[in-house]
Amino acid sequence: MRSKLNRWTSATASVLALMLSQWACAQLAPSAQAARPLQVGTRAPDFTARHADGSRYEFSAAHLGKPYVLIFYRGGWCPYCNLQLADLHLVEPRLRKAGFGVIFLSTDRPALLYSSLKESDIDYTLLSDPELQAAQAFHIAFHLDDQQYADQLKWGVDLEQTTGTKAHALPVPSVFIVDASGIIRFVYSNPDFRVRLKAQELWRAALPFAPRPRVD
Predict the structure, then answer these.
(1) Is 26 helix (H, G, I), strand (E, B) or coil?
(2) How far apart are CA 20 and CA 35, in angstroms?
(3) Helix, strand, or coil here: 66?
(4) Are 66 and 102 in contact (CB under 8 A)?
(5) Do residues 24 and 143 lie in contact, with contact meaning Cβ atoms separated by under 8 Å?
(6) Do the Cβ atoms of 205 and 186 come closer than 8 Å?
(7) For residue range 144-175, what is the model confidence (pLDDT) as tens digits?
């Protein structure tokens, strides 16, 4: 009887492990084009990321206190990401002055968050999401196949080195505006990583949800 119970327990554990593994894999889209970002009207998911010093940052949609702009980018090694961050340098402080929290999330491990950027005077709130937990929660993470990973290496980008993980995955560059109650009010997500939301477009999208009077 005990032998049968042990076999049943072992079999059940194996099935559960397989289900968990499949669930984890399901959070990564097979390609950028296949990613389906969370939509407007959805409650934003909670997530944990890391500051450059390794300390934890916890995003809780139920306890925001103000609206947030979440900007997901690939990493400091990406020239298009650097162009986007440079484009936002005038709008980001205006957003904060208007009452928004503004955070940037990338796959770079904490130690590389600022050092990998082309601009040395960036003072944004940059967060590390190397295992793409936040990106998966927002349904914008996708898997790189062996050829895509090899192509990254040819271009001088070793994701295992930049992320500090074995996760061969990236986020679709995306912007989410979340209101103070935790509801997503605006989404921009483009599988073509070369095309980003412009700073003025972000400003216009955010204005209706600003808790303070318009700041020109």
Answers:
(1) helix
(2) 20
(3) coil
(4) no
(5) no
(6) yes
(7) 988 988 888 988 888 888 999 888 999 999 99
**DSSP-derived pairing of the beta strands 101-106 and 68-72:** parallel
**How far is Cα 81 from Cα 53, in angstroms, rounded to an integer?**
22
Both tokens of residue 126?
């940059």
Identify the structural domains of the chain with CATH numbers, from first to last. 31-209 (3.40.30.10)
- Nearest Cα to 67, choosing from 23, 33, 107, 99? 99
User: Burial level of 214, CB count in 10 A (0-12/13-18/19+)?
Assistant: exposed
159 within 8 A of 144, measured Cβ to Cβ: yes
Return the closest-CA partner of residue 81 out of 49, 48, 104.
Answer: 104
For residues 194 and 16, what is the distance between their CA atoms, to the nearest angstrom?
40
Q: For residue 15, which amino acid is it?
A: V
> Which pTM value belongs to this model?
0.83
